[in-house]
């Protein structure tokens, strides 16, 4: 069991949605947070709104440039011990394969895949040395099941699940826990912030996400998964929760359903 109280938790995507809910719930449990996203002023406002604001810090990073983010984080965190890293930041997509420009695929991979690899490289050496630590990565049900309009997002989220599986196998002998979270639909800004085929922001909600679980419910599922050292957890309801099971046991049926959606 991983206890949260008094742990230093580095949380990405803390300014919105699932990450914002996680920040509040982790702080309530006594975690000391390092809050990351691009928007420094939102993060500073969040820090001041949390219990024991002085226990928390802000580290603004643009994760669409993982090498630069790694360099900045490595020097900012040189004197800190990170117990838990939660790779939660992410960007989605709403565009057909035939209308999506190549740079959009690259941006999705940078934020949703390479930034995870890069930030893990910042904390893993210390965790291995201490024989203690926990890496948590928020993938998606879209990392198990590909659907229309999300080819780049799904590609990155599939990739990060494979990477986390390899990491878990390698870290077992080093005492570092690895948890992958697969949210289904969650009511956040994800669809609003999704990229379209030319890389511009979509700028409106989805009925799918609007009908999903609350970010608070998802955050609570993530914390439970951390506390119980789970390898992989699906957080959602309805079809978005069932889809990975259908993929495994009734793939033909699922393919027909997705083609007709
Ligand atoms: N909502 C869902 O239905 C759903 C389903 C499956 C998986 N997920 C995953 O859950 C995670 C959280 O998403 P959410 O639903 O909470 O979405 P959200 O409300 O759009 O929040 C996304 C977060 O990621 C940060 N972010 C985005 N691009 C970034 C960049 N280039 N550099 C640094 N930070 C960046 C944003 O902060 P700034 O804008 O301040 O940088 C924000 O804090 C993502 O990994 C997403 O793929 C969500």
From TrEMBL:
NCBIfam families membership: PRK06181.1
Keywords carried by this UniProt record: Oxidoreductase
SUPFAM superfamilies found in the cross-reference section: NAD(P)-binding Rossmann-fold domains
Family: Belongs to the short-chain dehydrogenases/reductases (SDR) family.
Taxonomic superkingdom: Bacteria
Protein's name in the database: Short chain dehydrogenase
Keyword Chloroplast: no
Pfam families: adh_short (PF00106)
Keyword Oxidoreductase: yes
Coiled-coil region(s): none
